[in-house]
TrEMBL record:
Organism encoding this protein: Cloeon dipterum
Region named Disordered: 1-62, 743-804
This protein's name: NACHT domain-containing protein
Domain NACHT: 137-295
UniProt keyword ATP-binding, yes or no: yes
Highest classification ranks of the organism: Eukaryota, Metazoa, Ecdysozoa, Arthropoda, Hexapoda
Length: 1233
């Protein structure tokens, strides 16, 4: 049964079986004597006349029923509970009667919730906004078990019977109470139950067809009939007419009030009612009056006020229980026995419920003459055993959403009904007539059932197999937002034994938030913290990337416990500082634990966008920085404060002072600090202060200062540091110097000149560099976007092609000056000159320089190219985000003379190269002796000349590149004549064949890694090559080890291209014939649609057997058959069974269902040829991964180890029982690796 199933209602009024044992009264259910038989002659009229009754009135069958019902409801609503719990004291008569019940009701309306009175249930309401809600005919009242739903129903009927509600008494002629639970158990229809089981015959009149006449009259009453349906029910056990009444098809004009528990059934009935009301127990003012009467009777005048103060102001277990019909009595007893005190509302939840159960059970045992406690104040052993036995039944009930227990269930679970005498269960009311019926019981409060369920699980915690099974039955155990008390109570009861539960948790299901919630509940014992650390290590914490920590109090306290443990797995963490809901005490504990921790080697402190730090928060943060930086084993420290609005220049001065004080002490304070990242709005003086401190810290070799806007003075101070200190890497991405230029800024989005330290460009700056920015480029291609529409780029209207070709070539020959920096003119214009001049210095050992998205002017670009040409130490240069040719051409032209540059990253989505720049690029790259890695991500090439193709093939023949990155590049080929121009968009296959035939032969044997994710070729603005269609054009790359042909996952879904049967088979066949050395293949984002999947996959399997692939990435793969059924598992099965050298399979984001994952697991277990397979399955789904693991481990043929990490990594190891074969496989695996 699903966990959201509705539970049966509780807190029923007194049972009718008890009423039958009393002396008959005119108001009892069976006590009304049947009227004497009336003879059918004239004396009957005389007798009626003497009694004052008219014959017409006696003929109405509803008159007697109305008199009976009014007397019955007055009697039922005026009586207290016949058998209160044994722990409850005697109260004044009527204290607990439904007639004095004061419910707390809230109107549930779309988008709002408002309080309401009971007399407003069936009347029109006007909301505060002026909205008028019409009087409903059908009302649904929802309340938790034990909140008083039946008492509310009897209170409503009592108002009708006593005329205390004039509107209700005048508008309603007959009011019926139908207990749905008894209707369900009777097996009768609604009419049969009313006529035979609910009312005595005397109430329905005499005669064989008396009930038929009453039923016909009831149907004719329409809106004057009110039916109160009380109690839970099962859909499959109700007959047709009862279901029709609930849904409004039977007696549609009658007024119907339904009381149910919140959940599935209430949601099913919601469309059939006009008003939904939530019952939350008793009104607080009514509770105050009851407690005042209680303590006045105990002669404690100020007891009520002190009692209400002890409940607390906010919601907590004590305050919630006080609004329950029997809960306030229990709390009053605890308050009295505790000498005027209650458990603290902030105390652990298990301690609060321990005190409640100890009070109830001990008082009940004392009433029975048994010893209430044992030595140490603990409950007797037999009472604990009974509670644990009932807890097993309670656990199954909580899992099913049921808090009502039948007599037979209790007898079976607890071997009798002794458990019902311990005080936390009450008997439900039975209305129907007949012999003895099986009684039902319910807990006084739903939390009591959850406590007993946790108590049972804590009693079997030493039996791991039983514990694992029962933990799966706990609803919402691993969900941090679940309202269930069971997880917190369970861990609180276990205390230092909580590690036994942590050992049963699966790393796939558990989250860090859940772990810390459970850890706080059981306490920070050494074994508990160590178990949490082991789980964190399994989930990947400390193995890949930095662990993100937020400044919420619970998370900070949890991480402080982990950091204080010797088993802490963390190596890198990032603290995201928020300005709201920050607990200073928790933050202090976190940083104190971090300062003492020995495992964390990298710390990053950052802020969220829009969370501006105040001056006080900056001072506080500077103190934390002073605690963190001197960590003995700290190797990397990052401080990133994001600012949106303009801030005072000295806002972050406390942080700079704190960092400078730590760094100036050198190896004494920072012995192992090697990398420092500071992303702050630093001015020139602050940067100079930091540079002076860094001169005393020789261990720092990597310095990142992104987004600098400090002006030329600050950059000159940094350049001086480069000459003094042996920096190996310098990152200035997104920075700008003192330059203000008229041309468009870089794509970094930084507004040049916005810094206070920026100055205007010197008037005497060199004009030579401007020639790189004036190279001809049509305005149509300027600042191109990388959206889906960028695959088709229109030509500038009216541009003559021949003139454009000549103009490109002529201008390049005429305006490309030598790359020489005019030092005297440039040094006064920008601070970047000092940085680049330092890079040229032979004594400076900077090997990596990052000036991506920097606001470089023309002279800056020339100076950078000169530095590339002259520097002997510079090995890696990143110049990403350029928007103009002039920013990259000086670097490209300097490549043939560069003595040691090995990595060049020029990724940019806004660079467009025509024929002449492309030819120049190929010529420069082919003569670069040292370059090994080139990144041109996002570039657009527009090719119109055959010479460009020749330059490209010449570059590929002569290059020494090993890693070529062309991801998301676009190549647009324009053909105005020839076969390609005539084909147009008619047949992509013929266009590809023509392109392949016109491609010259080349041999690019030096390229080992080729990355073409999102790469596309368009002919006359029509895309013809992408993904699998590119492979035949790559035959010249004869020594490829890694190939990335992933497709763009963010393209236009309307233009999405599917890989059909023919394309897939041809792709794998080409792979097996011409790329035998390929080891890694990436097919991310492929959309495969197979009309004949079995036939195609067989052909694919035969071709894959000839491949030497060991790594296959199929992230976000989609494979469907002709009927659009997902068959990704079939493709993956084929790959696993056919690739004999496969050792790593990535299926991140693949939508596998659990049964499909199980099929894949069986294929790995039975058909995988290797001994070890690593699977990366991020975003696949926990249930699917569990099914895969279970299928692999079935039969004990393989073992699965969960490695965790960001990619949800699994390692599958085949189990070999023959030691000789195991040794052979070990040697084979080592050779393969």
């Amino acid at each position: 049964m699903p966990k959201e199933q509705i539970v049966s209602p509780v807190a029923q009024p007194p049972g009718m079986t008890r009423l039958q044992q009393r002396s008959p009264s005119p108001c009892s259910l069976d006590g009304v004597p049947p009227p004497p038989p009336q003879p059918h002659y004239i004396s009957t009229l005389r007798a009626n006349a003497r009694r004052g009754n008219s014959p017409e009135k006696d003929k109405d069958p509803l008159t007697a029923l109305q008199r009976f019902l009014r007397a019955l409801y007055r009697e039922l609503a005026s009586r207290d509970q016949p058998q209160p719990p044994a722990w409850a004291p005697e109260l004044p008569p009527g204290t607990l009667s439904p007639a004095s019940f004061q419910p707390a009701l809230r109107l549930v309306a779309p988008g709002e919730s408002a309080t309401m009175r009971m007399d407003q249930l069936l009347t029109a309401l006007r909301m505060d906004e002026g909205i008028l809600l019409e009087a409903p005919r059908r009302v649904l009242i929802e309340g938790l078990p034990g909140s008083g739903k039946t008492s509310l129903a009897l209170r409503l009927l009592h108002s009708w019977a006593t005329h205390s509600d004039p509107w209700l008494s005048n508008a309603i002629h007959i009011a019926l109470l139908i207990p749905l639970r008894e209707l369900r158990s009777s097996g009768q229809s609604l009419s049969q139950f009313i006529g035979k089981s609910l009312f005595p015959r005397a109430a329905l009149g005499s005669g064989k067809d008396s009930f038929s006449r009453v039923w016909r009259r009831l149907s004719a009453l329409e809106e004057k009939l009110m039916i109160v349906l009380d109690g839970d029910y099962d859909d499959e056990l109700l007959t047709g007419d009862a279901t029709e009444l609930l849904e409004g098809r039977l007696l549609p004009d009658a007024r119907v009030v339904i009381t149910l528990c919140p959940g599935r059934r209430a949601n099913q009935l919601a469309p059939f009612v006009q008003r939904r009301v939530l019952l939350t127990g008793l009104q607080l003012n009514h509770v105050a009056r009851l407690t005042q009467q209680y303590f006045l009777g105990k002669r404690i005048p100020d007891g009520a006020s002190r009692f209400l103060d002890a409940l607390g102001e906010e919601s907590n277990p004590l305050r919630d229980l006080a609004t329950w019909p029997l809960g306030w009595i229990l709390l009053c007893i605890m308050f009295e026995e505790g000498g005027g005190t209650l458990p603290s509302p902030d105390a652990p939840v298990h301690e609060i419920y321990n005190a409640m159960f100890k009070c109830m059970v001990s008082r009940c045992l004392a009433r029975r003459g048994q010893s209430p406690t044992e030595s140490g104040g603990e409950l007797p052993t037999h009472a604990k055993k009974l509670m644990a036995e009932f807890g097993k039944l309670a656990l199954s009930g909580v899992n099913a959403g049921c808090f009502v227990y039948q007599e037979t269930e209790i007898k079976t679970a607890c071997h009798g009904l002794e458990i019902t005498e311990l005080g936390f269960l009450t008997r439900g009311l039975q209305f129907g007539r007949g012999g003895r019926k099986l009684e039902h019981f319910h807990a006084i409060h739903p939390a009591f059932s959850e406590y007993l369920a946790a108590y049972y699980v804590s009693s079997i915690v030493h039996y791991s197999n039983i514990l694992q099974r029962e933990m799966e039955e706990i609803p919402g155990f691993l969900h941090p937002d679940t309202p269930s008390l069971i997880p917190r109570v369970l861990m609180g009861l276990l205390g230092r034994k909580g590690f036994l539960v942590f050992e049963q948790l699966c790393p796939l299901d558990v989250s860090i938030r859940v772990l810390f919630t459970l850890l706080r509940a059981c306490g920070p014992g050494d074994a508990n913290v160590a178990a949490v650390c082991r789980l964190l290590r399994c989930t990947g914490v400390g193995s890949s990337g930095a662990q993100v920590v937020h400044t919420s109090p619970g998370e900070l306290l949890g991480w402080s416990l982990v950091l204080s443990s010797a088993a802490c797995p963390l190596q890198a963490l990032e603290l995201i500082v928020q300005t709201e809901n920050v607990d200073p005490e928790a933050l202090d504990k976190f940083f104190c634990a971090l300062a003492e921790n020995e495992s964390v080697k990298a710390v990053r402190i950052s802020s969220l966008l829009g969370h501006e730090l105040s001056a006080t928060q900056v001072i506080k943060l500077s103190k934390y920085v002073a605690l963190t930086v001197p960590k003995p084993r700290l190797q990397t420290f990052e401080l990133v404060i994001t600012c949106v609005d303009e801030i005072p220049p000295d806002r972050f001065q406390p942080l700079v002072n704190s960092l400078s004080a730590c760094l100036s002490q050198g190896e004494i304070s920072c012995p192992k600090l090697s990398k420092l990242v500071l992303d702050l709005s630093l001015n020139s003086s602050q940067l100079s202060q930091l540079c002076a401190a860094l001169e005393e810290t020789p261990s720092v070799s990597v310095l990142h200062l992104p987004h600098l806007g400090c002006g030329a003075d600050g950059l000159r101070a940094l350049a001086a540091l480069m000459r003094v200190r042996p920096l190996l890497a310098l990152n200035l991405s997104g920075s700008w110097g003192a330059l203000v230029r008229d041309d468009p800024p870089s794509s970094s989005g930084v507004s040049v000149g916005s810094s206070s330290g920026s100055t205007e460009r010197a008037k005497g700056s060199s004009p030579k560099g401007s020639s790189y920015f004036s190279l001809p480029r049509s305005h149509t291609y300027h600042s191109l976007s990388r959206g889906p529409a960028s695959t088709t780029l229109p030509r500038a209207p009216g541009t003559p092609k021949d003139d454009k070709r000549l103009s490109d070539t002529a201008l390049f020959q005429k305006y490309c000056p030598p790359i020489v920096c005019e030092a005297l003119e440039h040094r006064t214009a920008s601070g970047f000159h000092a940085i680049f001049e330092s890079a040229k210095d032979p004594n400076v050992c900077v090997r990596a320089l990052n000036v991506s998205k920097c606001a470089l002017g023309a002279d800056d670009a020339l100076c950078l190219g000169d530095a590339v040409r002259k520097s002997r130490s510079l090995a890696a240069l990143r110049l990403e985000g350029a928007s103009r040719l002039g920013e990259v051409l000086p670097v490209i032209l300097a490549l043939p003379e560069s003595p040691g540059l090995q990595l060049l990253d020029l990724a940019s989505p806004r660079i467009v190269f025509m024929d002449a720049p492309t030819q120049l690029l190929c010529h420069a790259l082919s003569r670069s002796p040292s370059l090994r890695l080139l990144g041109l991500d996002g570039w657009t090439f527009r090719v119109e000349e055959d010479v460009t193709l020749g330059a490209l093939t010449s570059f590929l023949r002569s290059t020494e590149l090993r890693d070529l990155v062309l991801s998301h590049c676009r190549v647009h080929i324009t053909c105005v004549e020839g076969r390609l121009a005539r084909l147009g968009k008619r047949d992509d296959y013929e266009v590809r064949a023509e392109l392949l035939s016109s491609l010259p032969e080349f041999d690019a044997s030096s390229v080992v890694f080729l990355r073409l994710a999102g790469f596309a070729v368009a002919v006359n603005e029509h895309v013809v090559l992408r993904g699998p269609h590119i492979l035949p054009f790559l035959r010249g790359f004869t020594r490829l080890s890694e190939l990335d042909l992933s497709l763009d996952q963010h393209g236009d879904p309307d233009k999405e291209e599917f890989v059909d049967d023919k394309t897939l088979v041809h792709f794998i066949s080409t792979l097996s014939q011409h790329f035998r050395s390929l080891q890694t293949l990436r097919l991310g984002g492929w959309r495969i649609k197979l009309e004949e999947p079995e036939r195609s996959l067989r052909a694919v399997g035969r071709a894959l057997r000839l491949c030497s692939l060991s790594h296959l990435r199929a992230d976000n793969l989609s494979v469907t058959d002709g009927g659009r059924n997902a068959i990704e598992h079939c493709f993956l099965q084929t790959a696993v069974a056919s690739l004999g050298l496969l050792s790593w399979l990535a299926i991140e984001g693949v939508g596998l269902q659990p049964h499909q994952a199980a099929t894949l697991g069986r294929a790995i277990r039975d058909r995988f040829a290797g001994s070890t397979l690593r699977i990366s399955a991020q975003d696949v789904g926990a249930e699917a991964i569990k099914a895969l693991i279970g299928a692999v481990q079935e039969g004990a043929k393989a073992e699965v180890t969960y490695l965790g990490g960001a990619g949800c990594n699994l390692r599958i190891q085949r189990v070999v029982k023959n030691h000789k074969i195991r040794g052979r496989l070990r040697r084979f695996t080592s050779l393969k690796d």
